[in-house]
Design goal:
Blueprint (H helix, E strand, L loop, with lengths): L13 H9 L4 E5 L3 H9 L4 E4 L3 H4 L11 H14 L4 E5 L9 H15 L3 E3 L7 H9 L4 E6 L5 H4 L9 H17 L3 E5 L3 H10 L4 E4 L7 E4 L1 H4 L17 H17 L11
Parallel strand pairs: 1-2, 1-8, 2-3, 3-4, 4-5, 5-6, 6-7, 7-8
Helix pairs in contact: 2-4, 4-5, 5-6
Bound molecules: 3-methyl-2-oxobutanoic acid.
The site of 3-methyl-2-oxobutanoic acid (KIV) has 11 residues, from β6.
Length: 273
């Protein structure tokens, strides 16, 4: 079994992401939350590993990303960094760690960088948080933006449906994307917006736009690794392509193990000392 054949084995940097956009090379990004998965996805050729606050959902069983704390994100990110050799590692700043004021935002971004060894932080929002984004960048910390469906604001939106379908919200998103680029962000995630709007933003900006539910005319794609590996078969949004059905694989393997233990078939003589 082999992963994607990586031509450029150098560590991926934020500068390299812009080069990839200029050269028309698509960027592949996935989430990971632990050492073992991070080592697997890095070894298979992924360009960016995101320690997403989706850990709140897939690792902790919460229905939103709001409850996860900075301390928890730091534990996940530290484990991921240990598993990655080539990919750029980005850590989400969780809800409440950058919205209160700029000083707290910078302090918390510094904590993430110092205590995890990751390469970049990701924040949700545009104009509302632009001063904090500028200050984090001024502290020497690379920032990735996140626009469109921003799950930390789910209680304001009220639903997980497609964002920026209306003219006013689309215009704000375009303005926000330009503000984030001008501030110095290295890339922006566009989540669940019309493909036409994502294509327009991608054409207007020099930095890479990474889509999730944003169509094909963007510079890269991101998915939650547990979703694309089919670990929760009840979650099937339109944008999700499943590359495996690990839920079935695990169910069958564990079922077989239980059967073998109950039948005293495991361990056999060769598996004993
Ligand atoms: O937390 C996350 O997994 C994310 C991706 C969906 C982009 O932000």
């Amino acid at each position: 079994m082999s992963g994607y054949l990586v031509e450029d084995t150098r560590k991926v940097t934020t500068h390299r992401l812009c080069e990839m956009k200029q050269q028309g090379k698509k960027i592949a990004m996935l989430t990971s939350y632990d050492f073992t998965m991070a080592r697997l996805v890095d070894g298979a050729g992924i360009d960016i590993v995101l320690v997403g606050d989706s850990a709140s959902n897939v690792m902790e069983g919460n229905t939103t990303t709001l409850p996860i704390t900075l301390d928890e994100m730091i534990v996940y990110a530290r484990s991921v960094v240990r598993g990655v050799k080539r990919a750029l590692v980005v850590c989400d700043m969780p809800f409440g760690t950058y919205q209160i004021n700029t000083t707290e935002g910078v302090r918390n971004a510094v904590r993430i960088m110092q205590e995890t060894g990751c390469d970049c932080v990701k924040l949700e929002g545009g104009e509302e948080i632009i001063e904090t984004v500028r200050s984090i960048l001024a502290a020497g910390i690379p920032v990735m933006g996140h626009l469109g469906l921003t799950p930390q604001s789910i209680n304001k939106f009220g639903t997980f449906s497609v964002r920026a379908k209306e003219e006013a919200e689309a215009r704000k998103l375009i303005r926000d994307a330009h503000l984030l680029e001008e501030a110095g962000c290295c890339a922006i995630v566009l989540e669940k917006i019309p493909a036409k709007l994502a294509a327009q933003v991608t054409a207007e900006l020099k930095i890479p736009l990474i889509g999730i539910g944003a169509g094909k005319d963007v510079d890269g794609q991101v998915l939650v690794v547990n979703d694309m590996l089919g670990m929760d078969l009840s979650f099937s949004p339109k944008f999700l392509r499943r590359y495996a059905r690990l839920a079935d694989v695990i169910h069958d393997a564990v079922g077989q193990y239980v059967t073998d233990v109950k039948n005293q078939d495991f361990p056999n003589d060769q598996e004993a000392y």
